[in-house]
Amino acid sequence: MDHDFPTVAINATQIVSYEITVTSRIAEAASVLADGLASGNEGMEKALVFVDTGLPQQHVEKFRSLLVKGGVGCNFVEVPGDEENKVLKEVIAVVETMNRYGIKRRSSPCIVLGGGVSLDIVGLAASLYRRGVPFIRVPTTLLAMVDVGVAAKTAANHLGFRNRIGTFHPASNTIVCSEFLTTLPRRQMVNGVGEIFKLACIKDSVLFSLLEEAGERFVESRGQDVAGAQQIIDRALRGMAQELEPNLWEANLKRVVDYGHTFGPAVEMRYIADLLHGEAVALDCLLSAVISNNRGRLSDGDLAQVFMVAARLGLPLFHKGFDDVELLLSGLQDMTIHRDGNQNLPLMSGIGNAYFVNDLEPREVTQASIRMKEIAEVTAGGNLTRKHNDNEIIVEKVARRD
Amino acid sequence: MDHDFPTVAINATQIVSYEITVTSRIAEAASVLADGLASGNEGMEKALVFVDTGLPQQHVEKFRSLLVKGGVGCNFVEVPGDEENKVLKEVIAVVETMNRYGIKRRSSPCIVLGGGVSLDIVGLAASLYRRGVPFIRVPTTLLAMVDVGVAAKTAANHLGFRNRIGTFHPASNTIVCSEFLTTLPRRQMVNGVGEIFKLACIKDSVLFSLLEEAGERFVESRGQDVAGAQQIIDRALRGMAQELEPNLWEANLKRVVDYGHTFGPAVEMRYIADLLHGEAVALDCLLSAVISNNRGRLSDGDLAQVFMVAARLGLPLFHKGFDDVELLLSGLQDMTIHRDGNQNLPLMSGIGNAYFVNDLEPREVTQASIRMKEIAEVTAGGNLTRKHNDNEIIVEKVARRD
């Protein structure tokens, strides 16, 4: 501020460092964790481990016994893993658990074992409790491994808005372990692929080719087809880290990783019981690709390829929420506030290349929504209805238009 | 962590800068604020101003009309100002207000006008809403000016623990204006002096002398006796800033500014309707001074002087909560967790000098509690009952011991 009154200025620098370790066996992940805990904690009180209610009991038991074998006593406490429970009430329940167990402010890191929602909830609680305590993430879903587990963000939904409440508070360590994927339902696997698909579209044509060639095998084998699988996870994870590191607190609001995150969040929250995050992201990617093609900035060939790879990966190609232009525009409007008054809409200018748009008009969204449905139908061979493993129908039959 | 698995490391640096501007007239404060808002906000939508319910209407009206005159349209929204309402529910109400008004993520700073509680509530909401939006503080109580308004902390009480939930999220600007003190009840003025007294005891013998010589006049004149008053505020504020700046995120848990904040918080929360924060701090300072004297590290003369200056400033010299050794020890225990397993108890080794203790024993607290009451009684001339302006009795008659 520019004036003549006396001022006191405070200038401080915070260095934030964290690490993601990539393992392929649960035994390896547990040993990395046990070693880390032992080195940081001489007293070795019991570690507080939050576990996603959705994680199969076999993994929980294996992990627990491995930790005990590694000399780490644990208290296991459940946290919800579904988007509908990513709310403040659950965050505060975690805070109260931390308080009840009397964890120390610096040397009693909590552990969270689970999908993205549980990581977000425990992360937000860890950032609030005593103004911040350390925690360690062990993501157990593909989405959590390549997205939530790399970022510095924590979050809860509020008032029907996705991640309306949150902080920047990265885990000191994240331990990725692909063995957890073995029990993942197919739909959850595809959900994670949604975020990888986004990154490939906007940033990484090599990753796009990998998905095109090995993506189906990757999904079917639950990431256990070691050669291609580990490469896909590695590349996705490193690409994400590359984008986040220079912009960790989002000083720059033009972010390519926001691709697929402009119209989708509003649809996802409206159909919260129906759509998974990665599905909403993929659908937004497709709509955005159509917008770019309509603008003459993405070739017809690239557009077709984007739809085709999405189809091959088992991603949804359409959803009724993307028929609701008002809903899509409310998403855009809220994201414009989030991007400080600018649309900053990332669009593809080719496979793996991005540009930003600030002059999107409502009629473009209407046009793109109609064309998206048409292309989706053609791509899916006239039938957009697809059943998922867990019997939820997320891609609906599209009525033919004349 | 030490192992052979592939890792991805993320290293980022955050620079945090903020400023405290010191004015003496509300017109000056409003003009600094209006200039700052105008320069940052070309569009000039209405600013969202949160106002402490305890702030006299005359100040609110004056401030509002000055802002309007300065070209800033405002929406005024009330927030509570009392410690009993420093709770998550109120924080979330502020988040919802921010969402309702659609403030932008970066260029729509909210303003909060009020005492420490309102600053804490709005600060925590600002740090949570969209993972952080900027805000500007205008502290209107002495305590908020010299303490809350200088720090980077935000907070809410939870589960009966003081500041159990919070974040580090400093206001981009804090505008101090001593004219707000003119209407402050005497007890609130003394409350702020409690934090200044703490800083003087542990860090600044010159400030201690200032309080000794001009402290009473400072309280009686509501900080309007310009020479001594401005000097006391300035020195307190700069001393606090000096301690915080190199340790903004509390990487170092040995903090001299924790003086008076070890036993007091537990007592304050138990008697939340009864004791103000600065009163609890001052009482903790006195107990701690007795502990140090009992250890032979603070002279009898210095100890007597500490009690005498506290008495002269109108600070409480005793409270029944400091008779409850179990309560005092529960405070120590919780602060030991907060200081990561170490007591890190700051004690005086003379006026303005500190040392840290990690071997305090329960019997020392018992002994100090008894002696504190005796010295308090002698200092107060046998009668520890004192009525405050607002008719709350906070210093109780002490029963004679034989």
Descriptive overview:
- The structure is a homodimer of 402-residue chains.
- By secondary structure, chain A is an alpha/beta fold.
- Helix content of chain A is 46%, strand content 18%.
- Chain A contains 13 helices and twelve strands.
- Chain A has helices spanning 26-40, 57-69, 88-101, 116-128, 142-148, 186-203, 205-220, 226-244, 264-270, 277-294, 300-313, 325-338, 362-379, and strands spanning 7-23, 47-52, 74-79, 110-114, 135-139, 153-158, 161-168, 173-177, 345-350, 353-357, 386-387, 393-395.
- In chain A, the strands form four sheets. A six-stranded parallel sheet of chain A has the order 1-8-5-4-2-3, sandwiched between helices. In chain A, strands 6-7 form a two-stranded antiparallel ribbon. A two-stranded antiparallel sheet of chain A has the order 9-10.
- In chain A, helix 7 (205-220) packs across helix 8 (226-244) and helix 10 (277-294) runs antiparallel to helix 11.
- The longest helix of chain A is centred in the middle third of the chain and has 19 residues, at 226-244.
- Chains A and B meet through strand 1, helix 1, helix 3, strand 6 and strand 7 of A and strand 1, helix 1, helix 3, strand 6 and strand 7 of B.
Mean pLDDT of chain A: 92
Tally of alpha and pi helices of chain A = 13
Tell me how many strands of chain A there are: 12
> How helix-rich are the residues of chain A, as a percent range?
40-55%
Subunit arrangement of the protein: homodimer
Largest beta-sheet characterization of chain A: 6 strands, parallel
Which runs of chain A of at least 5 residues are low in confidence (pLDDT < 50)?
A: 387-402
Backbone structural class of chain A: alpha/beta
Distance between the termini of chain A: 60 Å
Order of helices and strands of chain A: EHEHEHEHEHEEEHHHHHHHEEHEE
Global outline of chain A: globular
Rg of chain A, alpha carbons:
22 Å
Q: Classify the beta-strand content of chain A into a percent band.
A: 15-25%
Strand order of the largest sheet of chain A: 1-8-5-4-2-3
Largest interface: A-B, 77 and 77 residues
